[in-house]
């Protein structure tokens, strides 16, 4: 029997979980810091890492006790080591390293975005591959082709805002609370999705990349037409409901169109989604109704596996552990993602030596 502890602290969730044999989630404990960041309408790195420091030990203890285990029962310890806010990553990594060292267990460093990509396999280990995976959250929006466990290729990514970020900023424009995705979803429930004509940015006809910043500006200009005085009050009543419904529909439309493009262009057998935006009921409904997408084996994970959590870290940790991909105890925290996150160092021009 294989028991993996997964620890996640890359953003504003302090999370730990135990997964048995790669897919049985024995415990999944998440402490959300939303109330701490709400008044800033975004995650404040310093506040986030301080809160992780206070919460990490109780959360790990709870994940173990919920699973009725002690640390010595564990096979390995998986932890997010990239991408994320380095001050936040370091908290989870310090806890994971201490456990790995004290109990002499392997440490497995996990890429957070890849963990979202592999959530389909955690939910349904029989998911046929290759799978088309959409990762849509507050920090990332990208399409991947998952060829085999541990091996994916990125097909497209956002050139500016992430889908969740566009929802968060859009909600702020509409005077709604943070995080914006659930606030817009809630407000738009009784709204008319066609009431406001908002653009869908599709980029070149072949592109699988995303761009949401223009859509956010279009919402701004709808609420505050340029050249006119700024309205004293944010929209309210039916107008607010219609704006929320129309804006959400525009963002969901882009995600669906790009998924269709990817499914038509690449040989895929399944489709899975991950990240906080994957909790959106309209997105799920549109995927299930789409005549191209619903031909694929659909894996729409339970909501608690979509948003940031420790189970997805343990799930990918299990795959990497089985492949012998464990990490040294001095593994570093890295701010950027594994794929596409390569930093090009600017070459310094050699100056002629003055003699
Ligand atoms: O994956 P996540 O919990 O954290 C990271 O950003 O990594 O995603 C958070 C994002 C936020 O932008 C939030 O507005 C969005 O997911 N979100 C949603 C919903 N719930 C959370 N977006 C649309 N519909 C939702 N129900
Ligand atoms: Zn995430």
Q: How would you characterize this protein structure?
A:
This protein is α/β, with parallel strands linked by helices and 355 residues long. It has two domains: 3-117 and 306-341, ATPase, nucleotide binding domain (Nucleotidyltransferase, domain 5, 2-Layer Sandwich), CATH 3.30.420.40; 128-302, Nucleotidyltransferase, domain 5 (2-Layer Sandwich), CATH 3.30.420.40. 39% of the residues lie in helices and 18% in strands. It is built from twelve helices and ten strands. The chain has a five-stranded mixed beta sheet, with helices on both faces. Helix 6 (163-173) runs parallel beside helix 8 (213-223). The longest helix has 29 residues, at 237-265. The radius of gyration is 21 Å and the shape is globular. It starts with a strand and ends in a 33-residue tail after the last helix. Zinc ion (ZN) binds at residues 112, 116, 137, 275, 308.
* Strand residues, percent: 15-25%
Describe the main β-sheet briefly. 5 strands, mixed
The parts where pLDDT drops under 50 for at least 5 residues are 340-350
CATH classification, class level of the largest domain = Alpha Beta
What count of helical segments does DSSP give? 12
CATH superfamily of the largest domain: ATPase, nucleotide binding domain
Helix content: 25-40%
What are its keywords?
355 residues, alpha/beta, Nucleotidyltransferase, domain 5, 2 domains, 5-stranded mixed beta sheet, binds 5'-O-[(R)-(carboxyoxy)(hydroxy)phosphoryl]adenosine, binds zinc ion
Briefly characterize the structure.
The protein is α/β, with parallel strands linked by helices and 355 residues long. It has helices spanning 34-37, 45-66, 86-102, 112-117, 119-123, 163-173, 180-187, 213-223, 237-265, 281-289, 303-306, 310-322, and strands at residues 3-8, 13-20, 24-32, 76-82, 107-111, 131-136, 141-148, 151-157, 270-274, 297-299.
């Amino acid at each position: 029997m294989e028991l993996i502890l997964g620890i996640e602290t890359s953003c504003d969730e302090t999370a730990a979980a135990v997964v048995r044999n790669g897919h049985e989630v024995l415990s999944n404990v998440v402490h959300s810091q939303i109330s701490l960041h709400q008044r800033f309408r975004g995650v404040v790195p310093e506040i986030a890492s301080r809160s992780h420091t206070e919460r990490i030990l109780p959360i790990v203890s709870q994940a173990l006790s919920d699973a009725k285990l002690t640390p010595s029962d564990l096979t390995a310890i998986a932890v997010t080591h990239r991408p994320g806010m380095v001050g936040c990553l370091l908290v989870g990594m310090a806890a994971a390293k201490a456990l790995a060292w004290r109990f002499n267990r392997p440490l497995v460093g996990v890429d957070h975005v890849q963990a979202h990509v592999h959530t389909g396999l955690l939910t349904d280990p029989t998911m046929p591959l290759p799978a088309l995976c959409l990762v849509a959250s507050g920090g990332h929006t990208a399409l991947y082709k998952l060829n085999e466990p541990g091996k994916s290729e990125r097909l497209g990514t956002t050139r500016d805002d992430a889908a969740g970020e566009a929802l968060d900023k859009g909600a702020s424009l509409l005077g709604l609370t943070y995080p914006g995705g659930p606030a817009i979803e809630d407000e738009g429930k009784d709204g008319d999705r066609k009431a406001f004509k908002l653009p869908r940015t599709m980029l070149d006809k072949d592109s699988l990349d995303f761009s949401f910043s223009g859509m956010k500006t279009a919402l701004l200009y709808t609420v505050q037409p340029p050249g006119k005085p700024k309205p004293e009050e944010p929209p309210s009543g039916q107008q607010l409901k219609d704006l929320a419904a129309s804006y959400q529909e525009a963002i969901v439309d882009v995600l669906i169109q790009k998924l269709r493009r990817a499914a038509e262009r690449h040989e895929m057998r399944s489709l899975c989604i991950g990240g906080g935006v994957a909790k959106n009921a309209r997105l799920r409904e549109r995927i299930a109704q789409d005549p191209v997408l619903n031909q694929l084996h659909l894996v729409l994970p339970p909501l608690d596996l979509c948003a940031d959590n420790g189970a997805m870290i343990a799930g990918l940790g299990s795959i990497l552990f089985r492949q012998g991909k464990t990490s040294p105890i001095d593994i570093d925290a890295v701010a950027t993602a594994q794929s596409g996150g390569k930093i090009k160092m600017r070459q310094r021009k050699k100056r002629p030596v003055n003699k």
